Amino acid sequence: VILVVEDDPELRAMLCEVLEDEGYEVVTASNGEEALIALRSHRGTCAIFLDVMMPVMGGFEFRKAQREDPELSVIPVVAMSARWNETERLDTPHCMAKPFARTAMLAYADRFCRQGEHAAPKSP
Amino acid sequence: MMDSDSKKPPPPPSFVRSPEHLMDFVDTAGVGLHWVASDGTIVWANPADYEPLGYTADEYIGHNITEFHADDDVIADILRRLSGGERLHDYEARLKAKDGSIRYVQIRSSVLFEDGPERKFVHTRCYTQDITERKRSELARDRFVSILAHDLRNPLNSISMAAQHLLAGDVSEKQKRTIERISTSSERMAKMIVDLMEFARTLGDKVPLKRTSVDFGAVCQRISDEVRTANVGATIEVNCDGDLRGEWDAERLSQAISNLLTNAIQHGESPFVVRVRAVANDVVLQVSNRGRPISPEAIAEVFEPFSQSTSTTGLGLGLFIVKEIVTAHGGTIQVRSSVEDGTIFTSTWPKTCQGEP
Q1: Helix, strand, coil % in chain A, rounded to nearest 5
Q2: Given CB atoms, is B230 within the 8 Å cutoff of chain A?
Q3: Residue in chain B lying closest to A105 (CA)
Q4: CA of A102: which chain B residue's CA is closest?
Q5: Contact A59, A90 (CB under 8 A)
Q6: Which of A9, B161, B287, B306 is buried most deeply by CB count within 10 Å?
Q7: Could you report the per-residue pLDDT of B198-241, keeping only the tens digit for each?
């Protein structure tokens, strides 16, 4: 299962469609709070595509909560960032600057969900 | 000046006929002036100091300065510094107006100490400039950048992703060409957003830098490879000479080289040459192209924002951004253009930080 966390409904639907057409099972959330609920009810999530600026609970707060939970902290996070200085604070080496390419997203999905790689402290 | 460390004050100029004349002068000044005693009490102020906050003289003079500051830690810091003999230059603070609104001010202040071994605190001499309007426009600018960065990129990402997804499926040649147009246009728009963000960020400020140890030649090679991939058929030569290691902001440097090369390709002809050499404590970068020279009129405005004559993105910000990046690194950039030599952009990049803030 791949979790897509994005507050823009159009983009969320588009990302979901691309991943599903490639055969992935996708769960979506529109903010960090929904994402935590989704993660806890869908065990076996292999990757999280995470927007940074979101209402209710943004990417930074989500990451903090995720890292504090040992079960969730191993799931690799790919930041979908719009601003150049956001990803460092998210503490993940995996990042796609918006607007990013379909192939970039599918490469991450393949790496984490088909080849089974876990959160590794290195760049793609 | 009556500072303890200065000499005796000069006598008032002969045209000041009475102390009332001096008071009249400070009372009508356009800048806020006040004196504060060592316990924080405002002992004197002119109308320009309290009227913008909505107070009368009685509501202001005789009260403690801390009552008018919005941030307790800020006024505590100000008083601590001043008591220690420090002079404040353009110290920013937030004041509370009578109606509850916040005014932003810039403060210049120092303490008048009595002559003698005890250096007794007499009062502060504080000049307050209201900068609320400037602060508001800065906040509006930040909001503008945020809209560019975030709100516009999401729909753009949807458009480009949808086009790429369609292309990955089963489409006719005609549909393919149409979808490719959507892709190309959205890529161009993404580039414009990046440039507009850069422009908005540089308004009034220098480009912020994160210097790390960088091999200038390696960055040139990498960017040239990227630009070559994106511009099939362009011949790009890279010549490196000398020790090209130094401390620059790698991301900004890449952006500058990329903009220079893209500009050369859009306005010139092959071969495009990137020449990098170490000269004393600088690295000198030359990006040149053949083809029609830039006219003298266009040369004059080549680094100006929104200069349409040399626009690389449709906005005319590419070379402006290059200049901002070079300048932030303490370097310079020039351009020469002629039929014989083609067009050559020469920039110098000091290898280390040279007293930039």
Answers
A1: 45, 20, 40
A2: no
A3: B161
A4: B161
A5: yes
A6: B287
A7: 777 776 666 778 899 999 999 999 889 888 877 777 899 999 99
